[in-house]
Amino acid sequence: MSFILYKQTGSVVTLMLNKPEERNALSTPAQWGEIVNACERVKNDMSVKAVVLTGAGAAFCAGGNIKDMRDKTGIAGGSPNQIREGYRSGIQRIPLALYNLDVPTIAAVNGPAIGAGCDLACMCDIRIASSKATFAESFVRLGIIPGDGGAWLLPRVVGISKAAEMIFTGDMMDADEALACGLVSRVVAPEELLEEAHALAQHIAANPAPALRMAKRLLREGQHTRLDTLLEMSAAFQALAHFTPEHDAALAAFWAKKKAE
User: Span 209-260: which CATH code?
Assistant: First the structure.
């Protein structure tokens, strides 16, 4: 059975982690590869304008496999150098693929997002939580550190002080606390979560695809580059945007509406 269920409706793709009996834990190289491949598929499909990421069953993603840590197998197996290389060539491929995806992404957090699961949500642009969702950057509780980019991702979402609190304590937070600190942008009833996420995705996808992809790239680059560099990129991207048929169509629709008014 596939770990990732890939479903496209119009210009919106839904990616569902599909191992509910294991709380959608990120356990194996095959699973990590499926996420990376799904991102590559989205990246290369110009018909896709937005992605919703969620989990099957009661959990969003329970993070890493604690049994592997106990038994010193899987990602926790081998010498220190083998473990290091295993992270670099394995689970660390996910943040590089998902965070850098060209289209806007929405995490629909349906339940616990723990450890790597919390980081997975932070790799998305927008997070919507079910009232049943919980979050924890819990690595320190197991005597390890965020191995998949959480120390880089989390401060950019909640700020350095809150990120430090979460990383150093490993404490769990509920959906309301996640909303208060900006980890999520809204909290909805569990039965409304996917409907809300898809409605937002469709609202985003109503906009021209080239502009969405370029705006997403500028947003990402703006998080680590200088203002003058970003302005140069913006000028180049804007020149491209002005020559897209989608821009011409949007202008025509705007003036037709103004004329009708």
Answer: 1.10.12
